[in-house]
Amino acid sequence: MKMPSLGALLAVAVFAFSALASADEVVVYSTREEHLIKPIFDAYTKDTGVKIKLVTDVENSQMQRRLKVEGKDTLADMLLTVDAGNLWEAAREGLLRPVQSKVLSAHIPAHLRDPGNQWFGLSVRARTIFYNTRKVRPAELSTYEDLGSQKWKNRLCLRTSMKIYNQSLVAMMIAEHGEAKAEQIVKSWVANLASAPFPNDTDMLEAIASGQCDVGIANTYYFGRLMKKKPGLPIGIFWPDKNGKGVHVNISGAGITKYAKHEKEAIKLLEWLSSKKAQDMLADVNLEYPANPAVKCDPVVAAWGSFRHNQINVAKAGELQAAAVRLMDRAGYK
Ligand code: FE
């Protein structure tokens, strides 16, 4: 077999490199369901001519492992995922790079982005209290801590502590109250459980509706999705801590990868994702809240009423996640 000449090999290499580095494309690794994201990226391509290659794996751990294994050879320019705990972990693993952007600093409030600028919140989900409207009056509810009081004995339902949403919630509680008090609160919740923890928020909400339990904690968009499907369910939403620190919020968000081949284009895309046009689509499609406070939320979401964000930086969800997992284990929260 005739060996290809050095010139031919070089030509192939140069062609491959230029294909790799074509300036009008951004490669996004995403753990968000594709139907939530693709229409938004299509709008960007339509506006700018920049193509977006979307690679989806809804398992965050798989996606982060892939980025790690690919190392500097990765084609990914941006990582898009849910939960500040996951983004914090990606930054800690050295998978992201800091981005200095006046646009992002102006659009995204400080508590919803990495203090080191490696990731930025793009939509907000509130993890709040839900109740059975036939069995509970909203006036009986007050704070997250209060769900551990005697009056809720055998009436509380929770999702499993294995889910990062609850790990982040408890991490934020450690940041707010200190570890000893947070542990006391989680123990008091466990003592009030009406049933073993549920595998997901939707099952937990259905258990509230069926009367299996009376109160619980879930992300707002699961409530939105469920009520869209079954509008008659007797579930109410409650915003706790009105006079205290406020409601625990978390984010979906994104960062630029450490080895991004299209850094400038990826930053432009990230900035656009924080702009009004994208924020409208990004939040509404999953019934979340825009991270950019200048953007109005979907009317369905607005009807749930307004609440105060707990202002603790969501990075604490990552920093204190390991402590939260150990705490929940000690408290017997399965
Ligand atoms: Fe979710």
Number of strands: 10
Query: In CATH's first tier, which class of the largest domain applies?
Result: Alpha Beta
* CATH homology group of the largest domain: Periplasmic binding protein-like II
Compute the average pLDDT: 93
CATH second-level architecture of the largest domain: 3-Layer(aba) Sandwich
Q: What is the tally of helical segments?
A: 14
Distance between the termini: 63 Å
Segments where pLDDT lies below 50 for 5+ residues?
Answer: 9-21
Along the chain, the helix and strand elements come as: HEHEHEHEHEEHHHEHEEHHEHHH
Principal-axis shape: globular
Oligomer: single chain
| Fraction in beta strands | 15-25%
Cα gyration radius (Å): 22 Å
Topology of this structure?
Layout: H1 6-20, E1 25-30, H2 34-48, E2 51-56, H3 60-70, E3 78-82, H4 84-92, E4 96-97, H5 102-107, E5 120-132, E6 156-157, H6 164-177, H7 179-192, H8 201-210, E7 215-219, H9 220-229, E8 235-238, E9 248-257, H10 263-273, H11 276-285, E10 289-290, H12 299-302, H13 316-319, H14 321-330
Parallel strand pairs: 1-2, 1-3, 6-7
Antiparallel strand pairs: 3-9, 4-9, 5-7, 5-8, 5-9, 5-10
Helix pairs in contact: 2-11, 6-7, 6-14, 7-14
The protein binds fe (iii) ion.
Task: Explain how this protein is built.
The protein has 334 residues and is an alpha/beta fold. It has 2 domains: 6-124 and 251-298, D-Maltodextrin-Binding Protein, domain 2 (3-Layer(aba) Sandwich), CATH 3.40.190.10; 125-248 and 315-330, D-Maltodextrin-Binding Protein, domain 2 (3-Layer(aba) Sandwich). Helices cover 43% and strands 16% of the residues. The chain is built from 14 helices and 10 strands. Strands 1, 2, 3, 4, 5, 6, 7, 8, 9 and 10 form a 10-stranded mixed β-sheet that branches. Helix 2 packs antiparallel against helix 11.
